[in-house]
């Protein structure tokens, strides 16, 4: 088996089943009812987002992402919306976990992220999100993120890197990982999967601590600031270690 074939097989192993009837979408439908009942008339929309919408998901990490869009006149703070989402998940037995901008849930072994946001005044696609780690907020545009990543032509490499991240116990926010990979692979062939992933490892080892990446939907949001220097150095060390492995089986499995 060639390197390309092996990496492709691992991507397939961790693929998130998609489409009507899939476990991910069944969970989304089941969660939608309680969310709609809680949000009521303040709900603007409920839609797929994140790795599921971008097709960069890895099974068992977040099988599906649901973006809960609240109307711009919704009362309360962004933290209130975040904690309200957590409470709904808790009341319904979804084993909620507070994350940075989302609530992680697990239902019958399927994982999901619930992301509450409020439409910004005079906008349609731009939302304000609560940042739990900073006790602050940020601007996002889900549609723009999906377009930027989904049309990058680097979905296979991104999925392989997400498997690597999970199996090596690394902390690397998904959008940061996706943008770093897209930037690192600029101009490279799209047919050399294994070599491309190795190239990203080299870039992580050499420049993860100095590469500055901006949120496509908010130039004031420096995505690369989402990790500390210690966390970036840990990524670099893991990449250097993977580059020294004799076979792909020692890198992702």
Quick tags:
43% helix, Poly(a)-polymerase, middle domain, 253 residues, Beta Polymerase, domain 2, alpha+beta, 9 helices, seven-stranded mixed sheet, 2 domains, single chain, 9 strands, two-stranded antiparallel ribbon
Give an account of the 3D structure.
By secondary structure, the protein is α+β, with helices and mostly antiparallel strands. The protein folds into 2 domains: 3-14 and 150-250, Poly(a)-polymerase, middle domain (Orthogonal Bundle); 23-147, Beta Polymerase, domain 2. The protein contains 9 helices and 9 strands. The protein has helices at residues 3-13, 23-39, 50-54, 78-91, 142-150, 155-167, 174-184, 193-207, 229-243; strands at residues 43-48, 64-70, 97-98, 103-107, 110-119, 126-131, 136-141, 214-215, 218-222. The strands form 2 sheets. Strands 1, 2, 3, 4, 5, 6 and 7 form a 7-stranded mixed beta sheet that branches. Strands 8-9 form a two-stranded antiparallel sheet. It is globular, with a radius of gyration of 18 Å. The model has no long low-confidence stretch (mean pLDDT 96).
SSE blueprint:
Blueprint: H1 3-13, H2 23-39, E1 43-48, H3 50-54, E2 64-70, H4 78-91, E3 97-98, E4 103-107, E5 110-119, E6 126-131, E7 136-141, H5 142-150, H6 155-167, H7 174-184, H8 193-207, E8 214-215, E9 218-222, H9 229-243
Parallel strand pairs: 2-5
Antiparallel strand pairs: 1-2, 3-4, 4-5, 5-6, 6-7, 8-9
Helix pairs in contact: 1-6, 6-7, 6-8, 8-9
| CATH topology (fold) name of the largest domain | Beta Polymerase, domain 2
Residue fraction in strands: 15-25%
The helix-strand sequence is HHEHEHEEEEEHHHHEEH
Distance between the termini: 14 Å
What is the annotated CATH architecture of the largest domain?
A: 2-Layer Sandwich
The top level CATH class name of the largest domain: Alpha Beta
Look at the structure and give the mean pLDDT: 96
* Low-pLDDT segments, ≥5 res: none
Category from helices, strands and their pairing: alpha+beta
Helix content: 40-55%
Rg over CA atoms: 18 Å
Beta strands, count:
9
Outline type: globular
Number of domains: 2
Helices, by number, come to 9
Largest sheet: 7 strands, mixed
């Amino acid at each position: 088996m060639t390197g390309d074939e092996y990496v492709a097989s691992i991507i397939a192993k961790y693929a998130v089943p998609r489409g009507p009837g899939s476990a991910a979408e069944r969970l989304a439908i089941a969660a939608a009812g309680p969310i709609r009942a809680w949000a009521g008339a303040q709900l603007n929309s409920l839609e797929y987002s994140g790795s599921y919408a971008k097709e960069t998901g890895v099974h068992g990490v977040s099988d599906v992402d649901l973006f809960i869009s609240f109307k711009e006149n919704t009362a309360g703070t962004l933290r209130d919306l975040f904690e309200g989402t957590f409470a709904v998940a808790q009341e319904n037995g979804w084993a909620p976990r507070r994350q940075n901008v989302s609530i992680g849930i697990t239902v019958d072994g399927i994982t999901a992220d619930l992301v509450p946001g409020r439409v910004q005044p005079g906008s349609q696609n731009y939302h304000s999100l609560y940042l739990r780690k900073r006790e602050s907020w940020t601007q996002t545009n889900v549609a723009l993120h999906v377009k930027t990543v989904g049309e990058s032509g680097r979905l296979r490499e991104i999925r392989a890197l997400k498997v690597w991240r999970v199996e090596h116990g690394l902390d690397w926010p998904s959008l940061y990982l996706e943008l770093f990979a897209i930037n690192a692979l600029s101009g490279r062939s799209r047919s050399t999967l294994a070599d491309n992933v190795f190239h990203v490892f080299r870039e992580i080892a050499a420049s993860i601590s100095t590469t500055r990446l901006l949120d496509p939907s908010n130039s004031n949001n420096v995505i690369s600031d989402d990790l500390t220097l210690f966390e970036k150095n840990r990524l670099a060390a893991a990449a250097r270690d993977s580059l020294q492995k004799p076979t792909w089986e020692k890198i992702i499995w």
